[in-house]
Design brief:
alpha/beta; 5-stranded parallel sheet; 47% helix
């Protein structure tokens, strides 16, 4: 009969199935399940408003799965865990690893300190391949995705099979702890988040359902339809994956059972883009703050005090696809990936506003905000990152809208004032004749703004700045 007591520290693994640390704890004996809102690192963790909202309900769901036994705390994790070890006479502590630089530093300190009192074990509960397991032949990290994926990941051992949820977890409730989930104050005081509640089902069970629904109904057309923002063409698993309501291994294994080929390969490569972002952040810790290519330190970025930045955040740029995406973000906590690229390109190239300001806005508004993915993706679009988009790739929101939202369903759903505008003018409403506008009940520049910039002029301005940057770099070489 087991008499051991193990503290399991939940972090970005808010689930029971395929949770290696939880399974190990349950196998040892009694478990004290713990979640700690780390007030020491709250600025570094930088939980955005939408992420805090999701986290509240994800913890609520996890607590139900644990039959009300989840213990929540806020404060210094080392202090809290040390106190729990002594009070419950715990002989082990376990957690699944996180890979943000500040998390790694914190966990090393905690492991070093607590190892004097109990056995401390960490596990891989988040990734298919941990960052230090993939490298080039010379030992250096990959900087190009295709090589990382094809030569690195696919040449490595296949990801392990997902673990089932423990059959039985003997949980211990800390009766001395009176802190409730509500007292973590993750929900906003002004309940703007009500608009998100109808959009999402949160928790481990909902994540599993979403995965199976995607595999059964959307996988077979994924490659051809994934870039079209209307309809259910993508998995929308990213927030579930970020908070660990589902694991990458569960997605990988279930998807491979679909029997697909081309569509499956495309979907799995998108899953591995998340891994690559984490890999880059692990090897290049300043990715969220500094240009990966330091030549971009000399790029003439503009600041976010530009009124055009505010127009961008509010979906009032006058370019319907950009505005539809920004309004989708504000109203749902999500934005389709194709539209994210268009909206980001518009900010950093047409408005020439620094990618960090876009990253910070997305971080606050996205339910799937992830430090690694958000940072790597913004640098990719800006051209300053690893394996970045070429400088001359400037997404045109007009042609992108015409190509990927040809019937206007997505754009009209988020910009209702344009709902009556004919397709011919939907992505160029400033070109619509007065008679057409009158028939639609639209007043140009009043009901919907005129463009804040000229696409052609700002494209040439951006290209000239990029060329000058490259010329300067060549001279310095």
């Amino acid at each position: 009969m087991h008499t051991n007591t193990t503290i399991h520290w939940f972090r970005q693994d808010l689930r029971l199935a395929d949770n290696p640390a939880l399974s190990a704890a349950a196998e040892r004996g009694r478990v004290v399940p713990v979640f700690i809102l780390d007030t020491n690192q709250i600025s570094q963790a930088n939980l955005g408003s939408a992420s805090r909202w999701w986290l509240h309900y994800s913890l609520q769901s996890l607590n139900r799965s644990l039959k009300g036994a989840l213990n929540v705390y806020q404060g210094d994790p080392l202090e809290i865990l040390t106190n729990l070890v002594h009070r419950f006479d715990a002989d082990a502590i376990c957690w699944n690893r996180c890979y943000e630089p500040w998390s790694i530093e914190r966990d090393c300190v905690i492991k070093s300190s607590l190892s004097r009192h109990a056995e401390v074990q960490s596990y891989n509960g988040s990734l298919l391949w941990e960052p230090w397991t993939i490298s080039k032949q010379d030992g250096n990290p990959y900087k190009v995705f295709s090589a990382y994926y094809r030569k690195g990941c696919l040449a490595a051992p296949e990801p392990a099979e997902p673990l089932p949820a423990p059959l039985h977890i003997e949980c211990i409730k800390d009766k001395a702890n009176q802190l409730s989930l509500d007292e973590l104050s993750l929900l906003p005081k002004i309940r703007w988040d009500k608009k998100l509640e109808t959009r999402w089902q949160i928790g481990e069970q909902s994540a599993a359902q979403r995965l199976h629904q995607f595999v059964d109904h959307s996988m077979s057309t994924y490659k051809d339809t994934r870039d079209f923002p209307s309809g259910h063409t993508t998995s929308r698993l990213s927030p579930h994956l970020h908070f660990g309501e589902i694991s990458a291994r569960q997605i990988w294994t279930t998807s491979k059972q679909s029997g697909e080929d081309t569509n499956l390969d495309k979907f799995l490569s998108e899953l591995v883009w998340r891994e690559f972002s984490c890999y880059l952040l692990y090897h290049f810790a300043d990715l969220p703050h500094n240009n990966f290519q330091n030549k971009f330190d000399r790029f003439p970025w503009r600041d976010n005090n530009d009124p055009k930045f505010q127009a961008w955040t509010k979906g009032q740029t006058g370019y319907p696809l950009v505005d539809a995406g920004m309004r989708e973000l504000w109203n749902t906590g999500f934005m389709h990936n194709r539209v994210r690229m268009v909206a980001a390109s518009f900010l950093v190239k047409n408005l020439m506003i620094h990618w960090r300001h876009g990253k910070d806005w997305f971080n606050d508004c996205l339910v799937d905000a992830d430090l690694a993915s958000n940072s790597a993706s913004w640098q990719w679009v800006a051209g300053s990152g690893a394996d970045a988009a070429p400088y001359f790739r400037i997404f045109n929101p007009t042609t992108q809208g015409q190509k990927f939202d040809p019937d206007g369903m997505y754009t009209r759903s988020h910009i209702p004032e344009l709902s009556q505008l004919p397709n011919r003018y939907l992505f160029t409403p400033w070109q619509a004749p007065d008679t057409v506008l009158q028939d639609c009940g639209l007043k140009s520049g009043i009901d919907y703004p005129k463009p804040v910039v000229d696409l052609s002029v700002t494209r040439q301005r951006a290209l000239a700045a990029f060329r000058q940057l490259n010329t300067q770099e060549a001279r310095r070489a």
